[in-house]
Each structure stands twice: as structure tokens, then as C-alpha cells.
Amino acid sequence: MTDPNNSKLKTRILKGIRKDPAQLFADLTIGISRDDNRDNIRERLDLIGNLIEQQSKARDARKALSRLIGPAKKNNEDCSELISQVSQISNQIDALDTQIKLNTTEIEAAMDASLSETEKLPSLPLHLAHTPASADHQTTQLSIRHADEIDHDKWQSFVESIAHSTIYHDARWKEIVRKNFNHPLYYITCENAHGELSGILPIVHLSSRLFGSFTISMPYFNYGGPLATSLSVEQALMTHAAALSESLGCSHMEIRETRARPEWQSVQRKVSMILPLPDSDELLDSALGSKIRAQVNKSKNNQLNVQFGGAELLDSFYKVFSRNMRDLGTPVYGKQFFADILNLFSDNAFLCVVYRNNEPLAAGFLLGHKDKLEIPWASSLRSHNHLGANMVMYRSILKEAISRNYAFFDFGRSTIDASTYKFKKQWGAIEHPLHWHYWTRDNSDLPQINPDNPKYKIVIGAWRLLPVFVTKIIGPALARSLP
Predict the structure, then answer these.
(1) Is the dihedral of CA 314, 339, 370, 240 positive or negative?
(2) Domains and CATH numbers, the chain
(3) pTM, two decimal places
(4) Is the pLDDT of residue 287 over 90?
């Protein structure tokens, strides 16, 4: 039930009516398609506008009378009538304020009522919304196969048949990971009595002097854990993967996914930031609010040029990306890694680059899958942050996502309250926890292979001092060992 004493919407309405009534109406009615609900909100706003005008006149009258009381008292005149009039006007102002609150409550109720199931934006993308059945009663058989032994078409058909599969379950990653990082891949499968797949789990084995030996599904990305027709099969796949990791001499296994599993060790250091998208860019513009619109419009005045494309933009993307990674103190992936993704996922992958005078200032790598467009890599040149290229890039990407009929935009992962988290939050992105589950040898402490680990601080600081061209040469060899 709406609380009539809640002043948040009232404050928004009071500011909006004074500043831009038309924009206020557009903001309040975003996503509302029924004319009667929109008319109701417009009528209430008009009434509130009249009440505010009456309040303003009453306050002016009260102020004028109040100014007479002081001099009258000094002259020992009777002020009772003046005081009575001021009191009456104060009561009128309070009554008008009550009417404003009541109409604000009616607007809030109309907004809530209008957002029927057909008018609400989808709350969750497919990869988060679906929960498999708790058990699979068919006879199953687990097997571990090297990547070269897997039936590509059979694997791919299964991935496409599962509603909550992600692009990172796609069999094409086998070639990309093998070619660019030379890691051993293991594909754990579960089949029923008829030889049909009921579950899969891709596992990559990473081994280096710096980080040790461990397995992960999937490295480099946020998603890609077990994919199955039931939770029991998912559990069996993970148990099998832990046994494989132990046999390989690994210190731990890491499974990156979106579902909580209380029976496994886990951390939730990161969240995915996902924005539900409306049907049109106009509706999105209203939803973003005046502050974001002002920042974007200001940045557009800096002669910024936005381009979308494929391999022809790769050099520009990599120029920005490699410099930004150096500034972060993180080894950069090789350019060929991105070229291979653009090639093998030509229907899903594309680039966005923002230029000024033919100089790339911001760039993003985009991957679309089912109902969601994701930006796994995004960078901008810090030296040019004052031009707002990053704001223009994200606004252009959101418009592009809507034009390509995606229902969600995934800003990628962030640490809660970090600067990147706040940046994504201002666009309206909603946080969804990422659950990274672990098996560890002898139940040892969970690994701390992340930039927040103090033992990596010196290395990160030193990396930031290297010339960018040096990091491009030695970075890819080090990046292959990063999870």
C-alpha cells in the first residue's frame, strides 16, 4: 500500500513541475501504454500545479501580513487580528499541502496499477530467469572427454535447446581458447539411457608458475557453469569436475555462474549489472532522466563520432583497450583473441568506437545472445575523460541494443559501491549476484587470484609504469594465465 507520508515522489513532482512539466509527465508515464492511466496522471499533475500556484500566493500573503506584526507591536497596537489572519492562511497552506500529498499518492497508485503484467518490462533475462527441475529420474551416465573428442553438433544442439544457456556454453569457444591460450579443455557430459545429452560442463585447465594449477568454467567471462535439464545433473557434473581437478593435481576448481549452491564453497565478490530495455529509444530517453541526458548532450557537443562495426574497427578498439589495461595494471589479451571472436561469432559480436578527429577515445566489445546484449570489454582514454566519450558510447550502445530488439543490456560485472558499479547504476542497471563456487584440495582456503590481493599490488603498480608497446608484446603471454 502506498504511504501518503512518503515525500520522495512528491519532491520529484514539485521539482519537475517548476522545471519542465512536459518532461516530468514523460518520465512518470514511461512504459505505461493505457490512455486512461496516462490521462489520470496528467490530470493529477495539472491539479498539483494549480495547488502549488495557490500555495505560492498564500505564502506571499502570509509573508506580507507577518511583516506588519512587528511594527504594530512596537507601536503597542492590537495585533490579534493580524495574527489570526496569518494563522488562517497557514491553515490554508497546510490544507493545500495535504491536497498535494493526496494527489501525489493517486499518481503513484495510478503508476503502480498501470504497470500490469503486459506493461512491465521483463524482470530477468533468460540466463537468470530459468531454474531447472530439482531431479532427473532417467538413467544417466557421466563421462569426461577432451575437447577434440566431443561431438560438436550434438553439443551445440543441446546448448540451443536449453532456455537459460549462455553464449559461453557455445562449442566455438573450444577453438578460440585452444588457439589463443593453448589450455587443455575438458568437456564433461551427462547422457541418458538413450545416449541423449542431459547436461554439459566445459572445464579449462590453467597452469602457471605465478598462479599455480587450477580448473575453471569459464575463464575470462562471467558465465558458463553447468548446463543441464535438472539440478541433480548439474550437481553430478560439478562433482565429476572436482574429481577431474583433483586427478590433474589442481589446487582448486572455480565454477562461475548465477545460481547459489549452498552445498559448495562460494564467494559473491561481484554482481552483474543488467538494464531491462524498453521497446523504443524514446522511452529509454525518458527513463534515463534529466541528469544523464544532460551529460550525454553536453558530450555530444565535443564533435564525437560513434561507429559500429566489425574487424575494420579492431585496430581502434585495441588501441584504446590496450592503453586502458596498462593503466589498470593488467596484462592485455592479444589482438588475435578479439579477431577470432569477431570471426567465429560474426552474427553475435561487434564493436563500438567513439572518435574525435579520427582519434579513438572510447571503445566497447559487444556480444549478443538471445534476449541480451553484453559488453564484456569496454575502455576509454583517461586523458580525455573530460570530453565524455564514455557517456556517448554507452548511450549509443543502448540505442543500438533496442534497434536490434534486445530486451536487456548487460553492463558486465562490478564490485558493489566501486566506481564502475556507480557508473552503471546511474544508467538504471539492476544488480544480480554472481556466485563463484569452489572445490579446494584438502578443503584449503579459497584462492585470492584478484587485483585486490595485497601480494599483487607491487606487480600491478610496476605494470602501470611500462610503455604501452611493451605491454602489448609481453602482456598476452601473461594474460593467458589469468582467470
Answers:
(1) negative
(2) 8-114 (1.10.287.40), 133-260 (3.40.630.30), 271-433+448-479 (3.40.630.30)
(3) 0.73
(4) no
